[in-house]
Amino acid sequence: MTPKPSGGPVFFIDRSLGRKQVAEALREVGATVEVHDDHFPQTTPDVEWLAEVGRRGWVVLSKDERIRRNRIEREALEAAHVRAFFLTQQDITGQEMAALFRDALPGMTNRAISQPPPFILTILEG
User: For the residues of 5-63, what is the DSSP string, one character each?
Assistant: First the structure.
C-alpha cells in the first residue's frame, strides 16, 4: 500500500532528474511529487518554468548546474521565490539519485516548511 501524501510541500522534479525513478521513490515514502514533463514541454526554458513553479509554491529538485551557476537562471529562481534542492554529484544513476533524495526527504521537508524562500540548498552523497 502506498502511503498517503502528508500534506507537506509539493516537490517538483525537473527534467535533469528524469521522469520516473526519483518521483516514484519519493511517492513511495509519502511525498507529493510533480514532474516537469507533466506540466511543461521539454524545451521550456528554465526561467519560464521556474517562474510558474515558484507561483505554485512547489519545491524544486534538480541536478542542473546551470540553474545554480548561471546568473540569469539563479536570478529567475530568486525572483520567483523558489525553494530548491540540488544534487551536486552529476555522474550517478537514476536509482542512486532516487535513493539520495529519498534519504534526504525528511530534512528537505523540514527546510521547505521552516525556511522562507528563496533558497538553494545542496544534497550531498553519503
Answer: P-S-PEEEE-GGG-SSHHHHHHHHTT-EEEEGGGTS-TT--HHHHHHHHHHHTPEEEE-
